[in-house]
Amino acid sequence: MRANEERNRLLGQTIVRNLERRHFDACYCSTSAEAIAKVLQLMPEGSSVTWGGSETIRRMGLTKAVHDAGYTVFDRDLAATSEEAVTIYRQAFSCDFYISSANAISEDGVVVNVDGNGNRVAAITWGPRHVIFIIGMNKVTRDVESALARARSTAAPINTQRFDIDTPCRKDGVCHNCKSDDCICSYIHFLRLSRPAHRHTVILVGEELGF
Ligand code: SF4
Predict the structure, then answer these.
(1) Which residues fall within 8 angstroms of residue 12, CB to CB, at 6 or more apart?
(2) Among 71, 79, 158, 196, which is least packed by CB within 10 angstroms?
(3) What is the DSSP string of 69-125?
(4) What is the atom index within ligand 1 of the atom nearest the CA of 179?
(5) Cα separations (Å) of 200 from 29, 40, 181?
(6) CA of 151 to the centre of ligand 1 (A)
(7) pTM of the predicted model, to two decimals?
């Protein structure tokens, strides 16, 4: 095992322990393939499933694997209109499983996200029976402050580029703490305890996934 893989494994195990103290279920997977198998194992046959706007879960092949496995999927990517997408956002609240990535996670197990419209952080907070996070080890930060800084200074400016959103950070890559109509940091969410206990599962992956 290479040194960086071993470091990720050891740090991943530390974060898993810290998440368990916060009433999460958690595990560390070395690869995306392992993480996909773990997600499919967690979701019983016949479950209803949806997900947030995550580059991570699409690129790693998880969304395709969930479709292929025959679950009842509410997939906003298949919506023909924006109204249909909003309907799927609302259906997310009654799903068995909501799959998401995160903008950052601190070493002591606080999951941090920023959100423009709030549908993702709303579903993380309440609604779907279970929430599964897939988080690459590139998103681990020392503490909550640096997790928030990562979300605002790295993840958000990349996402405004991806979606060509009219915010100051799209123009120069720097967070200006904007109040733009299109700001994707309207909601800033810290998930510090899983409540009810075990509603949230974090799967850490020893790869660079997403932004
Ligand atoms: S400039 Fe606005 S949208 Fe961009 S990271 Fe800062 S607050 Fe978020």
Answers:
(1) 28, 137, 204, 206
(2) 196
(3) TT-EEE-GGG-SSHHHHHHHHHHGGG-SEEEE--SEEETTS-EEEEESSSHHHHHHH
(4) 2
(5) 17, 15, 31
(6) 10
(7) 0.96
What is the Cα–Cα distance from 26 to 9, expressed in whole angstroms? 13
CA–centroid distance, 170 to ligand 1, in Å, is 8
Reported as a single tens digit per residue, the pLDDT across 156-210 is 999 999 999 999 999 999 999 999 999 999 999 999 999 999 999 999 999 999 9
Homologous superfamily, domain 3-205: NagB/RpiA/CoA transferase-like (3.40.50.10420)
Nearest CA to ligand 1 atom 4: 169
Q: Report whether residue 191 contacts ligand 1, using a CB cutoff of 6 Å.
A: no
Quick check: 104 and 148 in contact, CB under 8 A?
A: yes
Distance 16 CA to ligand 1 centre (A): 30
Say how many C-beta atoms besides its own lie within 10 A of residue 162's C-beta: 12
Decide: 147 and 56 in contact? Cβ < 8 Å.
Answer: no
pLDDT digits (tens, 9 = 90+) for 91-126: 989 999 999 999 999 999 999 999 999 999 999 999
